[in-house]
Here is the input.
Amino acid sequence: MGRLVSGQSLQWRLALLTGVCVAASVAVVGTASFVTTRWSLLEQLDEELVQVAQNASSTVSLNVATLGGLSPDALGSYRGLVGVVSARGTINQVPGQREMLHAGPEEIAVARLNSGSSARSVEFEGQTYRMVSVPMQVEDEYYAVMYARPLTSLEATLGSLWVVLLVAGMLGILTTTGAALWAARAVLAPVRRLSRAVKAVTQTDQLNPIRIYGRDDLGELTKSFNTMLRSLQQSREQQRQLIADAGHELRTPLTSMRTNVELLLADDKSGMLPEGARSEVLGDVAAQLGEFSALVGDLVALTRDDHLQRPHELLDMAEVTESALSRAARRGPNLRFDVALESTPVMGDASTLERAITNLLDNAVKFSPPDGTIRVFLMDGTLTIIDQGQGIEEEDLPNIFDRFYRSDKARNTPGTGLGLSIVAHTVEAHGGSVKAGNDPDGGARFTLRLPVVELSEQYE
Here is the structure.
């Protein structure tokens, strides 16, 4: 039950928020309608009472003391009250009237000014009356005729209006909240489907694409999630392939070392190896250990993403290339290097870039003849390395940067098959590209490009 409420909390929050907004709107509109209606009804009632008071003034003016002979019965079923106040404040009432009218400053002001009218609500024994006053002149005396009527009918009308507004408002709030709940359920249905699909991926570990139901924002979200799933699937396949290839490559040196170690152990017991053979076996073991260490180091370098985490800094690619050239020259002492480097500012990590360039130079050293020349040119952010080897077969070019890929020519040469993969991995991480091909004059040609930094923009 808790999970159900938690899973549906968003649609309930949307429904409740809609209900609260509608309730606030109903309250504002209902209050405004009630106040406006009450004011309008009071204004109409005041106009009617003023008309009655003016009509009564013609009768009252005949005899102010007796109010022209008016009686409570003559005032009809409205239970009205009539009185006259003079400019001096003297009040005369209808004889036998059940309630006595009291003149206030408003009524006296109408009598003194002999113009205008007044209207106000008064209380008589818990009942509210509406009282108006109109001016009246008898000879040289100024009076104000006061007329009051109970607000029973007006209050009944306003009470009925209040009940109607309250019932209609409550029905509107409930109806709107229910409709909002239904709409939220319908709108959030794709979200629930996406949530179930994500949960299924988590529980089953199956990176199957999620069905896209529309072209709205949720459809775009699903499409982005499917892109992430494809990327994860590709990464997983690459990881599996890397593990399989690494296991295959590691098996050979381990098997050879095991054989040599078993041979040495057997020689300790029987002394079957001829003189000098033991040193050769130990040398072979040392070479295999070196090959094994190189392979492990290349695997670690290929799988680590430290260079993505470390911040890149401004480098001169020419200086990085010169450092890599010094290392390559030690590995090919009989080779000649034709070098032309121009200063090229780039953003990157010096250690990983130097390793990538060193791998390209080591590849050129490995396949160049003993007295060959390696040409190295750096211009406009493009590093070109050309050797004088036999070049690259056309069928090998598409796979030359794949992990553990080795052409037929390279199978008997030292190496782990990961050097060029490290190059491609590093260059892509720096936003560049690397391409392999054959030079028209013979030999392999590797072209490495990195984005050049405009120094004026860098220091702006």
User: Anything to note?
Assistant: Residues 117 and 134 are 5 Å apart (CA to CA). The longest helix spans residues 2-60.
